[in-house]
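pinging the channel bc i need a second pair of eyes. not urgent but kinda urgent?? the chain im working w is below, pasted from the shared doc
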Amino acid sequence: MKKIRKGDNVVVIAGKDKGKRGSVLRVEGDERVVVEGVNRVKKHQRPNPMRNEAGGIVEFEKSIHVSNVAVLNSVTQKADRVGFKILDDGRKVRVFKSNGEMVDA
């Protein structure tokens, strides 16, 4: 089970986009995540008529390391660390370290 998943609201805690907030669009492997509006880059792309792609300068999000983001605690509106807890019915859930609230609730 991963500490950061697709759809989580996160805060960037290090790097050039420090302080920005966004939603996780996808998780790439074990160590990288793509966050909307964070680490945007420009790429000069050639037109490809076979795929109906126009050429020009395309802007999109690149992945950042998972250690540079933290899950946003909706109660405190701050970045928070995530831990795991096993409930009485045997389910394993993610909880915030600061207040013990469930992340997925």
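so The beta strands are 9-12, 21-28, 32-35, 40-45, 56-61, 64-65, 69-73, 78-80, 82-86, 92-96. and The radius of gyration is 17 Å. — does that match what u expected or am i reading it wrong
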